Amino acid sequence: MARICKVLIVENDDNVRDLLADVVEDEGYLFASVKSGREMGAALDEDDYDIVIVDVTQPPPEDGFALARVAREQGCGVILITGDHHHIERLQASGEHFLLKPFKVRHLTALADKVLAEIAAQCVRRKRSDGSFFASRTW
């Protein structure tokens, strides 16, 4: 059974993106996955996502922290992930929810549930890049 949550995965590594897709699908989340920030922007304009999982390490000129900011500005919850432990201090200072690779599935789902609860508590309306909003969601 699908959870009442729609996830967008932003990961440039094909293998990791496929693995994350398998994990969220196995956990019952509705999802889509993209490779880049440009694709993320198009996906956010096309559909209404609750959570965006963003890999911190993106090919230049993109930056996972900047992509997270864009997703948050459009009303999405964000989970940052990275396998590069050089980002730990910046992640901790950012106040963002994050996971370090490799991570356990239960940690991802627990964090997703926490982010979803925060989004629901804020009653956020999702905004498209043109300034229009998606229809109100019923919880």
Features:
alpha/beta, 5 helices, Rossmann fold, 18% strand, 5-stranded parallel β-sheet, 139 residues, 5 strands, globular
Give the SSE map.
Layout: E1 6-10, H1 14-26, E2 30-34, H2 37-46, E3 51-55, H3 64-73, E4 77-82, H4 88-94, E5 97-100, H5 105-122
Parallel strand pairs: 1-2, 1-3, 3-4, 4-5
Helix pairs in contact: 2-3
Please, could you describe this protein's structure?
The chain is 42% helix and 18% strand. The protein has 139 residues and is an alpha/beta fold. It has a single domain, classed as Response regulator (Rossmann fold). It has a five-stranded parallel beta sheet with strand order 2-1-3-4-5, with helices on both faces. Helix 4 links the parallel strand 4 and strand 5. Helix 2 runs parallel beside helix 3. The radius of gyration is 14 Å and the shape is globular.
CATH architecture: 3-Layer(aba) Sandwich
Superfamily (CATH H level) name: Response regulator
The CATH topology is given as: Rossmann fold
Large-scale geometry? globular
Give the biggest beta sheet.
5 strands, parallel
Uncertain residue segments: none
Q: Given the structure, what is the number of helices?
A: 5
Question: Can you tell me the CATH class?
Answer: Alpha Beta
Count of all domains: 1
